[in-house]
Design brief:
Chain lengths: 418, 118, 180
């Protein structure tokens, strides 16, 4: 088969261009390597460019939620070029290395954190067949790579030679590793239901989206994804309205920009992963397999479906940021270890046992059984939390009362330290 | 199979370019006027006292340790979840026992007050 | 051929970073080199078609154990100036063990020498395994972990070991109940 421009453009539109190239130039290792390199470049460039849009979107949506207008000067009425201007500004900032910094760690940290955020996208299925590589350990690979980004925080905190940066890094790491536990454990449930770790096969298994079959697991994943990406209400590590920026306080210019970039890339990735694991990814009532004439239009439609789902989840991330207040560090860690982790462990047991019991039944029976199981676990957990909260409030009230009594006694005023 | 990982390997090799490029451009474009005060570490405007080493609470270490334990547990559980339809009741029982034993560890840490942030 | 070159590069990376771990006088940099070395080992697993093990190596060793090591260093040492000597009182014993281990391995490999693609020794070439088996290898591993005819006993013992490690660490590191 020889090269034909019309066919090439056609395959480009239907997202089968790699298959077309393989047909024309043969399926040799050399061609594979070139295609892989192009794939890497396309995925990475997409991630970097979409961030410019994401930052604009976030500022605009948050502004609307807070009854402001948001960016409206640079690039027309809607401030579309605001982020581009910000990037240009960051590019012309002075590159400062603080005195006494550990140069290796200081310069390595922004590099590795972006690398980890980019590498996760390798197994993200954008559309049928449009995926970096469908590893048989896909979801596990994602967790492995995302755990590496924790190391970058320690590098940044240590490398800066700053007490606050190091303290911030320690707190960030405590938060990230804590919330990694419920995240990994909740991811076990879609894997268990799909009997595979490959992202493509998990999508293939979702004749009923897993958000219906495993709503609690989806919720736990969503909450821990919020914490893993350090977003409100779990953004106390760089609470911008209260304290200095945490582990990256010593960074400026584009090195700071890289931390910012990594945060947005991984947040978008978590939205995409949620869409893939719980909302059926690119699937939408068979739309993804549509063929019109000799055009495989399905892939393009699948891509659009995936993007709609991903950005819906991303919008919820922003919405939460605009709505919820920040939690305290003790609340953050208590909520994780004393609520999320035990609930997830129980949930895994319940899902596993119910799945074995209803294994032979049809898909709808299985769904109903799982839904009931999830409901029972959720209600019991909520009731236990309500009781714990009531007890906690009573303790707090008692403490305030004693403090008032002490304060009203004129002789000895004790101020408890915080 | 190895060709699957070829993509990942290329990704690992190529991905440093994307963060390195803007940082290098920044380094070239930005002004270079270092002075001792500018390069001081930023600790709320007050001059830095002592070195950055401060005594950390042992709590951090315990959190990291509990995390390691659960991480390893997850590593064991992932392949079991992937093989779930091939498992008999005995195997499911073994997995349940495994989860129970680690739940025990969490319960012990909770009971000892280790999970309390003070 | 390409695979051989990649193997040599990955092994070199692993070995060089491992040497840095034991010779670098800055403990933090040694810990970083250790992570790089772990990464190299993950690469070796990939070359052996053991994708799951590679990801597990990344998750457990770099994402968890390294953090634990760095925390331990930062909790106990004054890191900013102190440079540790790479030698301690047991360096002689350590060197002896290393030499013996190397001799044993070299002896074993020498038995199968020469390692050429044409010879019939077990090391001659990578046995071809079909892609379907490799794709199912993770599920096979999961089945083996909980089957009575395979590794269910080590699997349960592993969980007891983890439990013991957790309780042990809390007992050692946590202040006793009466002190609180």
């Amino acid at each position: 088969m020889s090269f034909n421009l019309v066919e090439f453009l056609k395959s480009l539109v239907s997202l089968t261009v790699f298959d077309y190239v393989r047909q024309v130039w043969g399926d040799t290792p050399g061609v594979e390597i070139v295609l892989d390199i192009i794939g890497v470049l396309v995925v990475s460039t997409f991630c970097l460019l979409i961030v410019i849009f994401l930052i604009w979107l976030e500022r605009k949506v948050i502004a609307r939620i807070q009854d402001r207008i948001g960016p409206n000067r640079v690039g027309g009425r809607y401030g579309l070029l605001q982020t581009v201007a910000d990037v240009l500004k960051l590019l012309t900032k002075e590159d400062i290395t603080p005195a006494g910094a550990d140069k290796v760690a200081y310069n390595l940290a922004p590099l590795t954190i972006v690398m980890a955020a980019l590498l996760m996208w390798a197994v993200m299925p954008f559309a049928p067949g449009v995926i970096g590589v469908d590893l048989n350990v896909g979801v596990f690979y994602v967790m492995a790579v995302s755990s590496v980004s924790v190391v970058s925080l320690l590098l940044a905190g240590w490398g800066s030679n700053n007490k606050y940066a190091l303290l911030g890094a320690f707190r960030s790491v405590a938060q990230l590793v804590s919330y990694e536990v419920p995240m990994i454990l909740s991811l076990l449930i879609p894997i268990l239901l799909a009997r595979s770790m490959s992202t493509e096969q998990i999508i293939a298994a979702q004749d009923v989206p897993f958000i219906i079959m495993a709503p609690l697991s989806a919720l736990i994943f969503f909450i821990s994804a919020l914490a893993e990406t350090g977003r409100t209400p779990f953004d106390l590590l760089e609470a911008e309205s209260e304290i200095v920026a945490g582990f990256h306080v010593e960074y400026g210019g584009m090195k700071f920009g890289m931390f910012f970039l990594a945060e947005f890339v991984s947040t978008l990735f978590m939205s995409g992963l949620f869409a893939t694991l719980y909302l059926g990814g690119y699937r939408f009532f068979g739309l993804e397999n549509l063929v019109i004439g000799d055009m495989e239009i399905g892939r393009l439609l699948g891509l659009i479906v995936f993007f709609v789902k991903m950005f819906t989840i991303y919008f919820i991330f922003i919405w939460i940021r605009g709505t919820l207040p920040r939690v305290r560090v003790d609340q953050l860690l208590n909520f994780n270890w004393k609520f999320l982790v035990p609930v997830t462990l129980v949930l895994i047991l319940v899902v596993a046992i119910l799945d074995k019991l209803a294994g032979g039944a049809g898909i709808w029976t299985r769904t109903v059984v799982q839904l009931v199981g999830n409901g029972v676990v959720g209600l019991v957990a909520l009731e236990l939390m309500r009781r714990a909260a009531r007890r906690y409030r009573r303790e707090q009230e008692a403490m305030v009362m004693t403090r008032r009594e002490l304060a009203s006694a004129p002789a000895e005023v004790t101020v408890s330290s915080h | 199979m190895l060709t699957d990982w070829q993509f990942i390997a290329l990704f690992v090799v190529l991905s440093p370019i994307f963060p390195a490029m803007p940082v290098i451009i920044n380094h070239l474009l930005g002004p270079k006027k270092p002075n001792p005060i500018k390069q001081q570490t930023y600790e709320c405007g007050i001059e830095t006292v002592g070195d950055s080493w401060v005594q950390f609470k042992v709590q951090y270490y315990i959190y990291a340790l509990v995390f390691v334990i659960f991480d390893i547990e997850a590593v064991f559980l992932f392949p079991i979840a992937a093989a779930y339809d091939q498992l008999g009741l005995f195997a499911v029982g073994a997995a349940v026992l495994f989860i129970f034993l680690l739940g025990d560890g969490l319960a012990y840490a909770w009971g000892r007050g280790v999970l309390e942030w003070v | 051929m390409v695979e051989q070159i990649v193997f040599i590069l990955v092994s070199l990376f692993t070995l060089i970073t491992a040497v840095v771990v034991v010779t670098n006088r800055n403990l933090f940099h040694a810990a970083l080199a250790l992570m790089a070395s772990f990464l190299g080992v993950a690469g070796l697993y990939v070359l052996l078609d053991a994708g799951f093990l590679a990801a597990a190596q990344l998750l457990v060793y770099i994402g968890a154990i390294s953090i634990l090591i760095i925390f331990a260093i930062m909790l106990t040492r004054r890191l900013m100036h102190a440079l540790e000597s790479p030698f301690n009182s047991q360096w002689g014993l350590g060197a002896f063990t290393a030499v013996v281990a190397f001799a044993v391995m070299a002896g074993v490999i020498a038995q199968f020498w020469p390692v050429t693609p044409d010879s019939v020794t077990p090391l001659a070439s990578r046995p071809e395994v079909s892609a379907s088996i490799l794709r199912g290898s993770v599920a096979e591993l999961g089945r083996a972990l909980v089957s009575s005819d395979a590794y269910v006993i080590p699997f349960e013992i592993a969980s007891v070991l983890l439990l013991a490690a957790l309780i042990g660490a809390i007992v050692v590191a946590w202040p006793k109940a009466e002190d609180e």
